[in-house]
């Protein structure tokens, strides 16, 4: 039978893996801005990265509940390092000289129109490299705010009102994150106007606001599953450790 220490380690590993892969995905696909109206019939535009960002919210709040603020910041800074590594690798691939046969095989699209696959590759991934400064700045600021506000609510509410500390911390942190990432990435380093930044940032934030509310049952289910996995005594002990770690 698995010991408490082993279960605790496995739990942090799984939650961190979910957090890391979705944060990395959000950074990579965030270069695309899509029309919500043409896709879902609702007005507005969103960055593709925000589609998976609610999973980061949930995993952040669950990690915070069981491993405290330090547990959140530990995986946050590890994720930042791995994202930087991933983008350095991507930058390296943009410097590679494309093979002639590859260019020739991909010189037209499905409709027979001229297509430059190397130009497309460079445009997508170098745009992503330009965004990395803004996105990582916003990511770190948002995570520090989220972890801090979550624990503030937790000290006030104790073990009650999981939805309040989870939703409240997300709403505060993402108010900053939604603006900072677009301002730095697309205004300072890009060619957007301030009006475009504010429009997309506002819609991104309202999407995250709605997602935080809608996904509240998922948060409660995650708590239920973890409590069943650890056991009631061990769960209480781990939550007490997380709270004591914050107070220390």
Gap from first CA to last CA: 32 Å
Mean pLDDT, rounded to whole units? 84
Classify the beta-strand content into a percent band.
Answer: under 5%
The radius of gyration computed from the alpha-carbon positions, rounded to a whole number of angstroms, is 21 Å
Q: Element order, helices and strands?
A: HEHEHHHHHHH
Give the strand tally: 2
Oligomeric assembly: single chain
CATH C-level class is: Mainly Alpha
Measured as a percent range, the helix fraction is over 70%
Number of helices: 9
> Per the principal axes of the C-alpha atoms, what is the gross shape?
globular
Biggest sheet, open or closed, and with what strands and sense? 2 strands, antiparallel
Briefly note the structural class of the backbone.
mainly alpha
Largest sheet: spatial strand order: 1-2
Per CATH, what is the topology?
A: Arp2/3 complex 21 kDa subunit ARPC3
> Which blocks of ≥5 consecutive residues have pLDDT under 50?
none
How many structural domains are formed by the residues? 1
Could you say what the CATH architecture is? Orthogonal Bundle
What does this structure look like?
The chain is mainly α. The protein has a single domain (4-97, 107-247), classed as Arp2/3 complex 21 kDa subunit ARPC3, CATH 1.10.1760. It is built from nine helices and two strands; from the N terminus they run H-E-H-E-H-H-H-H-H-H-H. The chain has a two-stranded antiparallel ribbon with strand order 1-2. It is globular. The mean pLDDT is 84.
